[in-house]
Design goal:
Order of helices and strands: HHEEHHHEEEEHEHEEEEEHEHEHEHH
Shape: globular
Mean pLDDT: 88
Oligomer: single chain
Length: 403
Amino acid sequence: MTGADYLLPLRTKLRSMRTESFGADPAGARMERIRRSPHFVDGAFQNPVGARIRPSGSTVDFAKIYFQKEQRARRVPTGTVPVHATTLADLAAPPASGLRLTWMGHSSVLAEIDGRRILFDPVWGERCSPFPFAGPKRLHPTPLPLAALGPVDVVVISHDHYDHLDLPTIRALAGTDTVFAVPLGVGAHLERWGVPAARMHELDWNETATVAGISLTATHARHFCGRGLRNGQHTLWASWVVAGPEHRIYHSGDTGYFPGFRDIGAEHGPFDATMIQIGAYSEYWPDIHMTPAEGMRAHLDLQGGSPHGVLLPIHWGTFNLAPHAWAEPGEWTKDAGEDAGQAVAFPRPGEPFEPAGTLPVEPWWRPLSAPLARPWHRTAEQQGPGPGPEAAARGDLDLAGER
């Protein structure tokens, strides 16, 4: 460090010392474009519906739940997660229907749609953390090496949190010819990690890019952003609509429930399949992640209010990120699907399926789960009248009652 360096503002010095994993802040023309966004108000991106992005309630109570030994044991599988053994061979032939989805774990999904390959939120790293020695560690291995996946036409990123935007994975993909579609501001991270600006489509909500005949539209979500201790809300978060000549699919990214799902469905739906976040929810952050009941409601909203297509649950099973039991999202989603009459796919990590074909429905998680209390499975009489859109707008939505 030179003598002149001591004249730099402290914030600038700290920023220069950040490890590569933290990414980069938007600047220059990118920041000017962010400031012009109608969704960037008072120096930050705003949610479509008000949301508390910091945990609510008592920190002491949360710590008791999160770190208590008995509770911690519930949040991991009791044995080895059955990763699909023949993923590579199964992907060798094109999908007969023109649409095939392969859940790689958490929110990572390979979608083969109308002759193109789209990879959502790829995370092949061992931990979702800025540090290789700390942070949530994988509960199962990746179904196959990233290099074995073969060419990918587009990598789609929902937002810049570590369990969705992974430095080792992006660095590996930067060396290929793939194109990236990311929300506004996220391109700053990718450029620092070696992705050329010419291979990026950086979109605001309601903007669309077309790659190899497939349209990719960034749509609203109710979440937040940030990879450091200070969160400036300078990178956008998004859900995504991907449409080909014959099929259309939806990936929720991370989001709390909000009435805007109906608008997305009305403009872009119905969908052959949706990939919906149903894990890492908590009463401590009810506005930014959905419970399985809320995820089911979101899917139905996207489909015009009635069961249609196939729901693929994502954002569960791979990392321990919330106080709920490890298998609870799968079990609750299964019950919610049966109650709604909605088709839900439950593949093992790495198990390809075609929404138009036979769906994987076996509850593979049950042999690895401690007994579940199932507080969500109440009779209609016990539940009483459900909340309306006005409750969601207030942030009071509670489809499950006791969580």
